[in-house]
């Protein structure tokens, strides 16, 4: 069984470009409204145009506006400094800061950003404070 995360976007091209930058990988486009990006570890992100998805599913769908707290994509890094570097790097690609990097009392370094569609992404490290 394979698992994927499907992202329904108003701006599929913009979302795909953002995640290509996040993972430094190219997505494969199947048509103007559908693309797939597979990470180095084999996790699959599929991107769909929202209007095309509604037609494909043949049912009304609703989408959150603004910051989407329904799900979170978690990205774990080896060191604390990796979290800080990735936070700055992803902001340069259009991510929005939701919470700056902090070290939690339990020893984890984490921060939150949102992708261009408002989906929440957490960057974490339980590794070394390097």
Structure described in brief:
25% of the residues lie in helices and 39% in strands.
Write the layout of secondary structure elements.
Elements: E1 4-9, H1 12-23, E2 28-31, E3 34-38, E4 44-49, H2 50-57, E5 68-76, H3 80-92, E6 96-103, E7 109-114, E8 119-125
Parallel strand pairs: 1-4, 5-8
Antiparallel strand pairs: 2-3, 3-4, 6-7, 7-8
Q: What features would you describe in this structure?
A:
- This protein folds into two domains: 4-57, Signal recognition particle alu RNA binding heterodimer, srp9/1 (2-Layer Sandwich); 68-125, 2,3-Dihydroxybiphenyl 1,2-Dioxygenase, domain 1, CATH 3.10.180.10.
- It is built from three helices and eight strands.
- The chain has helices at 12-23, 50-57, 80-92, and strands at 4-9, 28-31, 34-38, 44-49, 68-76, 96-103, 109-114, 119-125.
- Strand 7 (109-114) and strand 8 form a beta hairpin.
- The longest helix has 13 residues, at 80-92.
